[in-house]
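Protocol step 4 of 5: obtain the predicted structure for the target chain.
Materials: sequence only (see below). No template structures provided, no constraints applied. The aim of this step is simply to have a reference model before the mutagenesis design in step 5. Sequence pasted as it appears in the construct record:
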Amino acid sequence: LQLKEVAKPVPQDNEVLIKVHATTVNRTDCGVAFGWPFVMRFFTGLFKPKHPVIGTDFAGEIAAIGEGVTNFKIKDRVFGFRDEGLQTQAEYLIIKADYNIELMPQNVDYSTAAASLEAAHYGINFVYKVDINDGQRILLNGATGGIGSAVLQFLKMKDIHVTAVCNTKNIDLIKSLGADKIYDYEKEDFTNSGEIFDHVIDAVGKSTFGKCKPLLKKGGSYTSSELGPYWQNIFYALYNPIFSSKKVKFPLPKDIKNSIAVIKSYLTAGTFKPVIDRTYELKDVRAAYEFVNSGQKTGNVLLDCKMPNY
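Step 4 output (structure tokens):
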């Protein structure tokens, strides 16, 4: 990873040029950069990334518009996301005006908007594509990550008892986000708790269905942000409905445009606030990736793309 001067892109028909103010460095970005898990290489480049610029989400302002663009104007504050990559870790980017892009809510800044996309999109799919209803008891593993901290807030918008798993330093944070009960994984193993839940959501992908199955009631489900060892979660999702009363759900997070619309409504209402760990300048992008890849981040890590002085 290095900074390099490249030609400023020019918007074509139905395209807009975005001056990027903020973007995140997230697990998807690390997967593209490091080519792991290996399956990602079939989508992002077998031997090296297809695109020289990495990045999936952004918050910024419209700097120029192409012919035929009627839904945006110059200086509009916008945010957007594409999990296959938008080359957002740069000063400028090009995106189709009818793609996954929305006007930012007036009550949030660029950092908040950028931190509300990638992780929250996956979180929405966990909460709204699984049969989650008021009155249920749910265990959330990885509550301090970008996805987990979003899922916790989305769950508490419902009448749900949430038991969260986190590390010692983040207990107060997780309490502030609404967790009803907390397991400190540095001191105890939640899989030995003996409690029973309607659902287990593994937002960090560090447990397995086998370990969590005893925690599930009959008809309960396990959902993970990862494929699991040997891609087992895909196979469990296919075969468990036939052979077991305890199921693995693997919701495919496809409808990004709808996710952004839902996120925007929550931001506007003030019912969702993404957790931000720290912000790096664009010149420190290597350090940002090293930190995210260490697995120690809390919530989201941002890149400030406005002034890449190097």
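Step 4 remarks: DSSP finds ten helices and 13 strands in the chain. The radius of gyration is 20 Å.
Proceed to step 5.
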